[in-house]
Predict the structure.
Amino acid sequence: MTTPEPAPGSKPALDDETLAFAARVFQYARMGHAEELAELFGQGLPANLRNDKGDSLLMLAAYNGQEAAARAILEAGGDPELANDHGQTPLAGAAFKNDLAVARLLLDHGAQVDGTGGGSRTALMTAAMFDRTEMVALLLARGADPDRRDADGRGAADLARQMGAQATPAQLDAATRPAGA
C-alpha cells in the first residue's frame, strides 16, 4: 500500500517521532546543550531551524543565556539576523535579558548593532526600555545609533522614558548630546 501524495501547497503530516525530535532540538538550544547541537549539525541539521513562532535555535539560545549553545549554532552557520515572527532578533533577545556575554558573541559573529529584524526597534531601544545600563553602554560602544527612530518616530531615550526606565534616558541623552554641549 502506498501513501497518497500530499496535495500541492499542503504540508505533509509529521509523525510523533519527528515532532518529539524537533521538540528535543529546540530544548537543546534553550537549555544550552552545545555538544548535542554540534553533533546534530555535523549530521546535517540546519542551523537556522525555526519553531512555530519563528524562533530560531539561535534566538532560543540567546534569549535563554546559553552562550555555548549560541556559539555552536553560529559556528554551524546560524544567522544572527534571523528574526522571529515578532521581528525580534537574537541580539534584541540578549539585550532584553541583559546578557552581555551573548550580546558580545552575537556582535562578534555579525549581528548588526542597529538591526531591526524587519521590525523597527533596535537592541539599543530594547535595552533602554528595560533600563539595562550595561547593555546600553556595550551597544553604544559597538556603534549603536542613539538617534535612530522606530516606526512611530521614537528614539531609545523616548522609549525608555515611556517605560519608566530610571537610568537609561540620561545615559542616552549624554550619548546624543553634541561634543562640548
Notes: The mean pLDDT is 92. The chain is about 50% helix and 0% strand.
